[in-house]
Write a structure and sequence with these properties.
single chain, about 375 residues, alpha+beta, Beta-Lactamase, Heat Shock Protein 90, 2 domains, five-stranded antiparallel beta sheet, five-stranded mixed beta sheet, 10 helices, 10 strands, binds adenosine-5'-triphosphate, binds magnesium ion
Length: about 375
């Protein structure tokens, strides 16, 4: 079958377009192989991407039926002409592959390949794979027409584009893996910030209830209702973290009211006095409000859990177009450098990430015996 220059170009172009539409490596390879076989009018086409162990990470064929493929048996190893092509990164155009000194035979069910055209797929010096064709269809019944120099040129173009497509597909898969890893760490932070605090308060409230059961059953009942409410909130936060909703209270009540309520609850649940002052803060962009709330929650949580403070004070005030949050405790204090080096705590890391994630800044001021102040500034909108 011969293509005029126009139809040949159109066919190449549509093959290239088909390649660039697919992003999964396997689909890219299948498209390349099918296009090569069709464009060069061959009986068989294959593409192998070698692995590091003498086999193939991918091996895609076109022109072989499913039953035939199964009958052939396990994937080929890198041997014979194929191995030479991968090693030497040189094209091979042979009138009869079986006559080649490097030929090592094939399994019983393997189709008989005669004329052979193979090209390495390269990205710079790296050989990504080999693309090859066998048995050019030919009007003479006894066969033996063979591949031409023109065929080799055309397959060369396909191999170059195959290299680009393969490289793109690899980059895409790598970037998708990265995105998944980022998503996982975001979720871990989200769960840490939202849910573990609620569970901690829940535990304290349940303990309080247990102490009150005998002495003051009616107050114990009140504490148990609080347990139920906290459990429900934890479940909501969990759901919100998973679907990436911001805390519902923020939308309904705004940042100042949300902080005030949560701090009142903490004040009641803990022996430390917990206070809040909000001065002249206007509404901020949603992401900044959410970050401020999360940082305030974690800073409060740390102060109540680690510092033994008698007083924890939270202030939120306007600063230019933005706002400054301060959480101060008069507790034990700690050495922020040492904690940073220890590196297994999520809370402080997560606070920093949240601040920088909205264009803000976080400072930790603390020293053993001196109490702690966490300050976060956001730019506003
Ligand atoms: N306000 C504070 N007062 C005293 N020590 C603190 C205070 N905040 C943090 N720390 C110390 O810094 C450490 C690190 O805090 P961070 O929030 O990063 O982790 P964590 O609270 O231990 O664990 P989590 O990952 O659950 O938050 C704490 O373990 C504690 O020793
Ligand atoms: Mg913490």
């Amino acid at each position: 079958m011969s293509h005029g220059p126009r139809s040949g170009l159109a066919a190449v172009s549509s093959a290239l377009l088909a390649m660039s539409r697919h992003l999964e490596v396997r689909d890219v390879l299948k498209t390349i192989v099918a296009s090569a076989r069709e464009l060069l009018d061959a009986q068989y086409a294959a593409l192998g991407v070698p692995d590091d162990h003498g086999g193939f990470a991918q091996f895609v064929v076109d022109g072989v039926s499913e039953e035939q493929w199964k009958a052939i048996g396990p994937l080929p190893r890198q041997h014979g002409v194929l191995a030479a092509m991968l090693r030497e990164a040189r094209p091979e155009r042979l009138a009869d592959v079986r006559e080649d000194p490097r030929f090592e035979g094939w399994p019983a069910a393997h189709p008989d390949l005669v004329d052979f055209l193979g090209l390495p797929i390269r990205d710079g010096d790296e050989v990504l794979g080999a693309l090859f064709l066998a048995n050019k269809n030919c009007p003479r019944p006894q066969g033996g027409c063979g591949f031409t120099e023109q065929d080799e040129e055309l397959l060369g173009i396909l191999a170059q584009h195959a290299a680009i497509a393969l490289t793109n597909a690899r980059l895409y898969e790598r970037s998708r893996e990265l995105t998944i890893a980022e998503e996982r760490s975001r979720l871990a932070h989200e769960l840490h910030d939202a849910v573990s605090q609620k569970l901690f308060s829940l535990r304290l409230t349940a303990q309080a209830a247990a102490r009150l059961v005998d002495r003051d059953p009616s107050r114990a009942k009140g504490e148990l209702r609080q347990v139920a409410a906290l459990a429900a909130e934890a479940a909501d936060e969990l759901r919100a973290a998973v679907v990436e909703l911001r805390p519902a209270a923020l939308d309904e009540d705004g940042l100042v009211a949300t902080l005030r309520t949560q701090i009142q609850v903490l004040d009641r649940a803990h022996s430390a006095r917990v206070t809040f002052t909000g001065r002249g803060v206007r509404a901020l962009p949603a992401t900044q409000e959410e970050a401020l709330l999360r940082v305030a929650q974690e800073a409060l949580h740390n102060a109540l859990r680690h510092s033994g403070a008698r007083h924890v004070d939270v202030t939120l005030e306007r600063s230019g177009a933005g706002a400054v949050l301060r959480v101060t405790d008069d507790g034990s204090g700690f050495d922020p450098q040492a904690v940073r080096r220890a590196g297994r705590h999520l809370g402080l890391v997560s606070m920093r990430d949240r601040a920088s994630g909205v264009g803000g800044a976080l400072t930790v001021e603390s020293a053993p015996g001196k109490g702690t102040t966490i300050e976060m500034e956001v730019p506003g909108g």
